[in-house]
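2024-03-11 09:14:02 DEBUG pipeline.ingest accepted 1 chain
2024-03-11 09:14:02 DEBUG pipeline.ingest length=439
2024-03-11 09:14:03 DEBUG pipeline.predict start
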Amino acid sequence: MGNYIPVTENEKKEMLLAIGIDSIDALFGQIPEEMIIKGGLDLPEGLSETLIHKKMTAMAEKNRVFKSLFRGAGAYQHYIPAIVKSITGKEAFLTAYTPYQAEVSQGILQTIFEYQTMMCELTGLDDSNASVYDGATAAAEAIAMCKARKKNKALVSATANPGVIETIKTYCHGNGMEVVVIPEKNGETNIELLKRQLDDGVACLYLQQPNYFGIIEAAEEISQLIHTVNGKLIMGVNPIAMAVLKTPAECQADIAVGEGQPLGMPLGFGGPYLGFMTCKAEMTRKLPGRIVGETTDLEGKQAFVLTLQAREQHIRREKAASNICSNQALCAMTAAVYLTAVGPRGLKEAAIQSMSKAAYLKEQLAEIGYAAVFDKPFFNEFVTEAKGEPEKIMASLADNGILGGLPLTGEHMGHILWCCTEMNSKDEIDTLIQILKEV
């Protein structure tokens, strides 16, 4: 990173003099006395670079690093080509600054434009924004896009990720929308109960594909149902799965959202991650955040600009449909570099390997008594019963450097959600099975 050089004491005095005051205290004179910290902050003395490195390394060693992972539930371990970090780690890109001045931000704007283009190709829909904070935020923002004067009800499938459902409820509580959760039936959205909720007040339905249990939902049938009441279908999708499953466009979805973490971002405790959003052309003006457009300059050369950003987000926030004013530009660029590096064939290969290895793991688990709870088509995640207490099983795996599946709660208490990606080798799966046999 480049150096940051603060202003000198003389420069501070000149700036204070220019605005007609003589001290920093006078500058903040409007702040109540009881709010001011006296005597400065109680901070320790600075350390040398060597000592800082040792201190941070010691802190990092508290993290538990597993040699193999069989857990997904919204965040997935995929292979990341070395070129991804090589490009995105360049100093010119490591900035959170908004590229408002198009004439000096052409490089950053083009990376965002390329990202938008790729997300449209991946989902099959017409337009993409420049990303939002994470997949859960994207789902909640998509529901806000669908609110209309006489359409104030949002339907959400219970088979969606619980964290996404909670985020949707939080957003809808703030914007006054009613949320109705459609119960599941055998791991899928209960279509019969969905039909009972359909009326003219339904604005949209959020459906996760594949769903939280890894099952591939009947998205086309559900799309036809929601459109009978002029509601919108929002599909929350796994971007890797889009290489082999029908796209949201093919399922007649109006909006597609999802978590972009599988596209070149390593696993992290809370991120930073990436929420992608694409939609049909007629909904483009309702997309929150930013959209980068392509145009030509005065000389007829290719140029990129920020376009279609709703100014209400900044100057009339109480009337805005969304209050998102920023985007995950570096994460979006990471996704674009990853997709460029692996290409369509590489993305499809990652998806096929994830599916095939998950199928092999499911077969091997069944042979030792971990029966599948749902016998339905799935992508790379599936649910099994547990032989014993799930937490004790996971603890035994952890002792051998393996992060096992996720023990489920609620009505699925006693079940385990397993996951495979192309990163899980056959030897790792066989080792997992052997340890489970001993347990």
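2024-03-11 09:14:41 DEBUG pipeline.report The radius of gyration is 25 Å.
2024-03-11 09:14:41 DEBUG pipeline.predict end
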